[in-house]
Design the sequence.
């Protein structure tokens, strides 16, 4: 028997170990955050499978180690003196394997040199750089170049637009400045280097870092020099914001008719000046170039507009660059969400008229539209039978006491929110529109219908119309949830009856 | 061994004192088990088990029913080999194997009676209302019939002991029919015990779940039965040495034959499992924690004893064959435990897992003890380990 | 064995084929009783108020859930149905960035083809034409196979009862439905997150909701087809896996997978006897032939031995006779010689 005991014991130990291991069955999926100063050096997927995991290049450590030598230790300057973001040793090299060799040559030789000189140096073995890590998420925040940031740069450049803005002169094959043709960088610089233009990242780094470096070397106050200085979300939140930003002038109209060429729908009087502060920058609406919408988006759709027709461009329900989409996202704000994000909420057909109030014929459209009237709402009507101060809802009171609805108070609160917003004021048009937020699917009149006029006690599954109790709760509690009103519990609105079990 | 000596040895068993160490220990265990069962029937399952709504089947089902049925499969394996396939040299172990089988299945019923919510309703599927769509109905029917078959197959020894010649002749003539019936019933309920889990693809881990679970259960039962015959022979041959009539060499030959059969059975089981992995393309799962546990079961408790059996057969090493048998039996138990409550609801957090309570373990041990005591009582009186002189050479 | 092997096996195969053709493990697709009821659970409307739990306890005369209903601590851990709580509400997504927490109500799903009904050995479950799956505690013997088999882990057992333990689960308030009322949870829900009605109509309602608010819902009605379909249909704004609702492994009902194997039983019963008796007869014949050969060999050996013995005996007798003759001759010669010597004087 003794010879069998030992293998059995070992077996038992193995079994126990594996069994304990089996319990830990759920894989750890916490994602690793990659800081902004770390660049993941990955080839595009089309380059084929790699033998080793990508290197996560820690730029900060290299800057710190090579501080005395400066940026030119690794980066070259081009003929114009621009600091090239690419590693100088890999300039002009194309092809995957050649690039790999160049990087290896540059990095490893420098590391070896420094190690020989007893300086802080990096890895010289494969696995020390190509470390296998769980998948990470880059924490690099894109720089939002909004009006405030642009204004600060304009001040620093003493309003010399040519410091940053340029156009490509095809005939002369040079970059030069042309007044009146300033665009956002994105208008020409896309997501990747495409032979003609640098990618946005490449162009930005060339332009921004070079200038910041120059100003730093000249002792003037300049922008960040490190990755995290621009791309760290927390630091971005701490940037100085200018309260007053002068209007950027680029020949845009103050007020104009928006009208599709060949369309017969009444034109829209568009207050361009009034809309400018609504976005963070011009690119909020002019998402490709600063040209007018109809230069790319035509009635039938064009390649330049990615096939999006003019009507879609103006009316798409969720695109931030479209009129209706931007208005819809404004209506999803907390103070509007009670009515606008609830079930049964949909723009009334007559709201088209609020915008399309202009002439429909081409001749009349030529004239400059009249100044739009200030959007204002009439004051709330006085309390009456049709507009009570308080309502006691007792129709279904069983477990709970009748609910005392502070009708006027609620309306006043919602009204104040609408009045404070120019968008809401214009679109509501009259105060009665507010009533339709709760008194939905019915014509708004002097005396809107009570809930029980349309909601019977039982639900109607065919039309999906809820019963009265559900209608009350879905409307009220739903709105409280959407508007983060604290009263969301049962007894917050109706006290429990004393004699209930 | 002369006839007279056999008779004397059989009778001598009753003349010893009742307070032997064996009796004391088993008595304690059985008494404790009785107390706990008393608790179970007065306080309910909640007071005596760790069963939960998520793990409705625990040790009493996992061991007593699932493992018990598999380990008691030696009965049909040996009786089929001897009576249907003509392997006469295994005749000496048929009766011990059948007795082990009968006591094993009796244990299954005891375990069920302890575990069912209302055990007095055990006959309901047959007398009150049948649920013939249920695999469990088929298992119940087959187990009930097979228990009867095993009982009848165990009566020849009793009748010989009692000297009831006419009845002994009658049951002797039923041997072939009963063996055929036993093999049919065993095939069905061994595999249907596995089929009970076919309805749980979302709850049983993919490495143990297969659309061929019934085949897995049947083949592993054959292996388990063979292993248990070797294990049981290991103990009973020594305990009843004075009764045994066959030579040591014959006994060893039997064991090596069983070892060969065990090697084949385990090889088939291993192949079926590997083919199952390939069909479902589950190789990637082997790299997980559960995969490691599965490999422990498959490699350590199926492949290893299979190889051990083969080596033992070739090198004529009895000790190795016995070790392989023990590992095989443990492996089948492990497999049944895995399916019943380890890899079952595997995706729930570890805090909700089931572990048997000490009372469940005690009752299970008590049931096994009862079977051992019963075996000992019967074998020391009735012609199980030897042939009755008047019935030598007959069925 | 006196039974003719050929006839027996032929008959067995014929019976097996017949049995196989009738029901070889395939389940005929039953579309369900027309007009059966169902419930639609819209998790985008559920606010976790647990009025359904309280109403269910009241209707089924079970203890109310412990603690105040609005105690948010209850949602810290995921709960499951128990023998005293036939339905529970769990919070699955605590506080997503752009919305309120997501809750879901758990209970028996009243499947179209219930696993519990299929696996019960005493047929204690019945799928009624009205939709609910009913449980009969009068025949249940407490084997708990139903609890083991339910893919939604919806059943519970009264482990602490000794004489009358029952399987506890949502009954879809069958008595109330028969009286024309609505199940307790559906009536109690203030937000209308539970809608009771005919299952086919509810599917149409659910589709319409998805169509009207495509941004609000995941485009899928859970329970329409999963595992053959359930009476409880679920709509959600978050992926169903996050609500612990597993995608159906198949649209085929689980019982079809679970009982397909039982089709083998008739085959085993019919084929095995012939096969095994055949093997028995074969082995017996082998033994009989071996015995015969042995007897013949023994007989031949014996006969040969007998012949040899006879020959030996004959040669020995001959030699003995010859010896005797020689001895007699020698004695006669000797006597004659002596006589001649004595007679000459």
Sequence:
């Amino acid at each position: 028997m003794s010879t069998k005991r030992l293998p059995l014991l070992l077996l038992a130990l193995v079994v126990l170990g594996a069994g304990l291991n089996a319990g830990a069955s759920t894989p750890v999926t916490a994602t690793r955050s990659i800081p902004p100063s770390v660049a993941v050096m990955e080839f595009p997927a089309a380059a084929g499978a790699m033998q080793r995991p990508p290197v996560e290049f820690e730029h900060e450590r290299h800057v710190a180690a090579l501080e005395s030598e400066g940026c030119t230790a690794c980066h070259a300057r081009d003929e114009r003196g621009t600091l090239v973001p690419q590693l100088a040793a890999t300039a002009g090299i194309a092809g995957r394997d050649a690039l790999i060799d160049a990087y290896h040559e540059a990095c490893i030789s420098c590391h070896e040199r420094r190690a020989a000189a007893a300086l802080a140096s990096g890895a010289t073995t494969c696995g020390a750089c190509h470390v296998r890590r769980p998948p990470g998420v880059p924490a690099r925040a894109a720089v939002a170049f909004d009006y405030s940031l642009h204004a600060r740069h304009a001040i620093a450049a003493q309003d010399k637009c040519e410091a940053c803005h340029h156009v490509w002169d095809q005939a002369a094959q040079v970059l030069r400045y042309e007044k009146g043709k300033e665009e956002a960088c994105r208008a020409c610089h896309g997501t990747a280097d495409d032979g003609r233009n640098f990618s946005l990242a490449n162009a930005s780094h060339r332009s921004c870092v070079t200038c910041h470096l120059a100003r730093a070397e000249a002792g003037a106050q300049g922008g960040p020099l490190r990755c995290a200085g621009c791309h760290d979300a927390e630091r971005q939140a701490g940037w100085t914001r200018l309260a007053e930003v002068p209007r950027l002038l680029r020949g845009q109209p103050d007020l104009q008719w928006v009208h599709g060429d060949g369309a017969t729908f009444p034109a829209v009087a568009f207050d361009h000046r009034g809309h400018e502060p609504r976005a963070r920058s011009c690119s909020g609406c002019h998402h490709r170039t600063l040209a007018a919408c109809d230069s790319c988006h035509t009635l039938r759709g064009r390649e330049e507009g990615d096939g999006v027709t003019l009507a879609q461009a103006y009316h798409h329900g969720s695109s931030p660059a479209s009129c209706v989409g931007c208005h819809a996202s404004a209506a999803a704000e907390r103070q509007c969400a009670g009515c606008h994000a609830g079930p049964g909420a949909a723009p009334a057909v007559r709201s088209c008229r609020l915008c399309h109030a202009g002439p429909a014929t081409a001749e009349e459209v030529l004239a400059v539209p009249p100044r739009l009237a200030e959007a204002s709402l009439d004051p709330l009507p006085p309390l009456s039978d049709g507009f009570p101060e308080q309502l006691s809802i007792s129709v279904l009171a069983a477990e709970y006491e009748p609910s005392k609805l502070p009708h006027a108070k609620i309306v006043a609160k919602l009204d104040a929110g609408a009045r404070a917003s120019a968008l809401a004021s214009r679109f509501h048009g009259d105060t009665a529109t507010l009533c339709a937020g709760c008194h939905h699917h019915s014509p708004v009149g002097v005396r809107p219908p009570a809930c029980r006029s349309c909601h019977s006690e039982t639900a109607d599954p065919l039309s999906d119309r809820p019963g009265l109790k559900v209608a009350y709760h879905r409307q009220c509690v739903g709105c409280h949830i959407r508007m983060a009103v604290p009263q969301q519990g049962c007894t917050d609105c109706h006290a429990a009856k004393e004699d209930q079990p | 061994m002369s006839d007279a000596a056999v008779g004397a040895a059989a009778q001598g068993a009753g003349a010893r004192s009742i307070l032997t160490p064996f009796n004391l220990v088993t008595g304690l265990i059985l008494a404790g088990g009785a107390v706990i069962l008393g608790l179970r029937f007065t306080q309910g399952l909640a007071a005596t088990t760790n069963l939960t709504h998520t793990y409705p089947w625990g040790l009493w089902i996992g061991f007593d029913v699932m493992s018990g049925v598999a380990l008691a499969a030696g009965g049909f394996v040996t009786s089929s080999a001897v009576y249907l396939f003509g392997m006469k040299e295994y005749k000496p172990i048929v009766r011990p194997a059948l007795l082990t089988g009968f006591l094993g299945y009796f244990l299954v019923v005891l375990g069920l009676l302890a575990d069912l919510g209302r055990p007095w309703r055990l006959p309901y599927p047959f007398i009150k209302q049948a649920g013939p769509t249920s695999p469990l109905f088929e298992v119940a029917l087959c187990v009930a019939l097979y228990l009867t078959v095993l009982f009848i197959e165990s009566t020849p020894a009793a009748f010989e002991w009692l000297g009831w010649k006419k009845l002994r002749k009658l049951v002797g003539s039923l041997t072939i029919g009963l063996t055929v019936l036993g093999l049919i019933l065993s095939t069905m309920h061994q595999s249907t015990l596995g089929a009970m889990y076919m309805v749980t693809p979302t709850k049983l881990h993919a490495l143990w779940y297969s659309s061929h679970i019934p085949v897995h259960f049947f083949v592993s039962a054959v292996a388990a039965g063979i292993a248990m015959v070797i294990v049981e022979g290991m103990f009973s041959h020594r305990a009843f040495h004075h009764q045994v009539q066959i030579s040591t060499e014959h006994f060893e030959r039997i064991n090596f034959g069983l070892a060969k059969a065990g090697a084949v059975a385990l090889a088939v089981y291993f192949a079926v499992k590997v083919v199952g992995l390939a069909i479902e393309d589950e190789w990637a799962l082997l790299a997980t924690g559960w995969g490691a546990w599965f490999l422990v079961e498959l490699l350590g408790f199926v492949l290893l004893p299979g190889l051990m059996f083969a080596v033992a057969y070739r090198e004529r090493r009895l000790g190795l064959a016995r070790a392989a048998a023990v590992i095989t039996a443990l492996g089948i138990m492990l497999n049944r435990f895995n399916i019943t409550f380890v890899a079952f609801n595997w995706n729930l957090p570890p805090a909700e897992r089931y572990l048997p309570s000490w009372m469940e373990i005690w009752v299970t041990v008590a049931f096994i003890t009862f079977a051992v005591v019963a075996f000992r009582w019967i074998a020391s009186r009735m012609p199980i380990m030897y042939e009755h002189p008047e019935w030598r050479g007959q069925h | 064995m006196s039974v003719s092997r050929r006839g027996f096996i032929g008959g067995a195969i014929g019976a097996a084929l017949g049995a196989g053709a009738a029901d070889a493990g395939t389940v005929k697709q039953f579309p369900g009783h027309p007009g059966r009821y169902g419930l639609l659970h819209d998790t985008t409307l559920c606010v976790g108020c647990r009025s359904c739990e309280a109403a269910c306890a009241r209707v089924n005369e079970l203890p109310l859930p412990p603690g105040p209903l609005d105690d948010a601590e209850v949602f810290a851990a995921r709960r499951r149905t128990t023998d005293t709580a036939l339905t529970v509400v769990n919070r699955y997504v605590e506080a997503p960035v752009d919305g309120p927490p997501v809750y879901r109500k758990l209970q028996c799903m009243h499947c179209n083809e219930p696993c519990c009904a299929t696996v019960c050995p005493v047929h204690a479950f019945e799928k009624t034409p009205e939709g609910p799956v009913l449980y009969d505690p009068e025949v249940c013997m407490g084997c708990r196979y139903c609890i083991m088999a339910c893919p939604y882990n919806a059943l519970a057992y009264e482990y602490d009862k000794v004489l009358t333990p029952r399987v506890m689960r949502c009954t879809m308030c069958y008595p109330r439905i028969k009286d024309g009322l609505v199940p307790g949870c559906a009536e109690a829900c203030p937000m209308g997150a539970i809608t009771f009605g005919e299952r086919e109509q509810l599917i149409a309602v659910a589709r319409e909701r998805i169509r009207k608010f495509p941004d609000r819902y995941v485009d899928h009605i859970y329970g329409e087809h999963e595992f053959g379909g359930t009476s409880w249909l679920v709509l959600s704004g978050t992926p169903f896996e996050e609500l612990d609702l597993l995608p159906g492994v198949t649209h085929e009902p689980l019982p079809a997978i679970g009982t397909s194997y039982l089709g083998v039983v008739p085959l085993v019963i019919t084929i095995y006897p012939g096969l095994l008796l055949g093997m028995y007869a074969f082995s017996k014949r082998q033994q009989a032939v071996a015995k015969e050969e042995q007897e013949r060999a023994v007989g031949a050996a014996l006969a040969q031995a007998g012949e040899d013995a006879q020959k030996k005996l004959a040669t020995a007798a001959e030699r003995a006779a010859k010896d005797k003759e020689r001895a007699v001759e020698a004695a006669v010669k000797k006597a004659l010689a002596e006589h001649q010597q004595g007679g000459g004087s």
User: Anything to note?
Assistant: Residues 23-381 of chain B form one domain.
